DNA sequence: AATGAATGCAACCGCAGCAGA
DNA sequence: TTCTGCTGCGGTTGCATTCAT
C-alpha cells in the first residue's frame, strides 16, 4: 500500500472550511479518523493543531490584555513551562499563544538584561535584582511587572520596588481560583488546548453562541454549511 | 524608497502518557 | 500484562509582517 503524500505547511481557506465542517459533524476527537473522512491530505495531528490553535470558535483573538499578561507571569512562576496548564487558566488562549508570548518576553528580558549588565559594569550598585529565587522567572520582570501590576490592579497601588509590593498575591490567586470555580460550575471546556480535561460533547461542540461568533468572523463558510 | 533586523505567529517534530485490544 | 495506536504537550523552526535606519 502506498500512503498518500501528506500535505504540510500553511492551511488554505478551503482546508479550514473542510476541517470545520467535519469537526462540527464528528466532534473534536478521533483526529486520525477526521483527517481520513474529511479527505484532507493532512495528518490527524495537524488537523488537531489547526483546530486547537486557530479554528476553535472559543478562541480569543488579538493582543493579550494587561490582566492576562499579569496572569501569565504569575502562573508561569507557579507552573513553569506547563503551557497547557497556564492556558487552562486563561479562557480563549492557547498554550501555543502563551508559549509564544512568553518567548517574546524572555527575548525582551534577555536584551534588557544585556543592557543592564552593560550599565551595571559602569554603576554596579544598581543591580541587586538577583535576590529572587532562580526558579521563579517571573521575579525577573521587575520593571515590566510593576507596570503591568499598575494596570491590572486598576485602583490599587503598588510600590515601585519589586520586593515591596503592597498588593497581596493572595488576591491574584483568588482571581485564579475563582476562574477555576467558574469553569467547574459551568462545566465548560477550560481551554481549547486543554482538551484532555474538558468534557467532550459528541453531538456538537458548536454552541449557538459559538456559531454566531464563528460565522461573524468567517462569513465565507456559509456556502459550505448551508 | 530600499533593505536589513526584529518581532509575532503558525506549524512541525519528537516524546510521553493513556486507553483499548 | 504487554502491545499498539492515538492524543496532547513542550520545544523548535520558518515564514510573514513590522520597524528602524
TrEMBL record:
<keyword id="KW-0539">Nucleus</keyword>
<dbReference type="InterPro" id="IPR001005">
    <property type="entry name" value="SANT/Myb"/>
</dbReference>
<keyword id="KW-0805">Transcription regulation</keyword>
<feature type="domain" description="Myb-like">
    <location>
        <begin position="56"/>
        <end position="106"/>
    </location>
</feature>
<feature type="compositionally biased region" description="Low complexity">
    <location>
        <begin position="120"/>
        <end position="137"/>
    </location>
</feature>
<keyword id="KW-0804">Transcription</keyword>
<feature type="domain" description="Myb-like">
    <location>
        <begin position="3"/>
        <end position="55"/>
    </location>
</feature>
<keyword id="KW-0677">Repeat</keyword>
<dbReference type="InterPro" id="IPR009057">
    <property type="entry name" value="Homeodomain-like_sf"/>
</dbReference>
<feature type="region of interest" description="Disordered">
    <location>
        <begin position="107"/>
        <end position="141"/>
    </location>
</feature>
<protein>
    <submittedName>
        <fullName>Transcription factor MYB48-like</fullName>
    </submittedName>
</protein>
<dbReference type="InterPro" id="IPR017930">
    <property type="entry name" value="Myb_dom"/>
</dbReference>
<dbReference type="InterPro" id="IPR044676">
    <property type="entry name" value="EOBI/EOBII-like_plant"/>
</dbReference>
<feature type="domain" description="HTH myb-type">
    <location>
        <begin position="3"/>
        <end position="55"/>
    </location>
</feature>
<dbReference type="Pfam" id="PF00249">
    <property type="entry name" value="Myb_DNA-binding"/>
</dbReference>
<feature type="domain" description="HTH myb-type">
    <location>
        <begin position="56"/>
        <end position="110"/>
    </location>
</feature>
<keyword id="KW-0238">DNA-binding</keyword>
Amino acid at each position: 500500500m502506498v500512503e498518500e503524500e501528506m500535505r504540510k505547511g500553511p492551511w488554505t481557506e478551503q482546508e479550514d472550511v473542510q476541517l470545520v465542517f467535519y469537526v462540527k459533524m464528528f466532534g473534536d476527537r478521533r483526529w486520525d479518523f477526521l483527517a481520513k473522512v474529511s479527505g484532507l491530505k493532512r495528518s490527524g495531528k495537524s488537523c488537531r493543531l489547526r483546530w486547537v490553535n486557530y479554528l476553535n470558535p472559543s478562541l480569543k483573538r488579538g493582543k493579550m490584555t494587561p490582566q492576562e499578561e499579569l496572569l501569565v507571569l504569575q502562573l508561569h512562576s507557579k507552573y513553569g513551562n506547563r503551557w497547557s496548564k497556564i492556558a487552562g487558566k486563561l479562557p480563549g488562549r492557547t498554550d501555543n499563544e502563551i508559549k509564544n508570548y512568553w518567548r517574546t518576553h524572555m527575548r525582551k528580558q534577555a536584551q534588557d538584561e544585556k543592557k543592564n549588565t552593560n550599565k551595571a559594569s559602569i554603576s554596579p550598585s544598581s543591580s541587586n535584582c538577583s535576590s529572587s529565587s532562580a526558579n521563579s522567572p517571573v521575579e525577573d520582570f521587575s520593571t515590566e511587572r510593576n507596570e503591568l501590576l499598575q494596570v491590572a490592579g486598576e485602583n490599587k497601588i503598588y510600590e515601585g520596588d519589586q520586593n515591596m509590593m503592597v498588593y497581596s498575591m493572595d488576591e491574584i490567586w483568588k482571581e485564579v481560583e475563582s476562574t477555576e470555580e467558574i469553569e467547574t460550575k459551568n462545566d465548560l471546556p477550560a481551554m481549547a488546548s486543554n482538551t484532555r480535561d474538558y468534557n467532550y460533547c459528541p453531538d456538537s461542540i458548536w454552541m449557538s453562541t459559538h456559531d454566531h461568533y464563528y460565522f461573524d468572523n468567517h462569513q465565507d463558510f456559509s456556502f459550505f454549511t448551508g
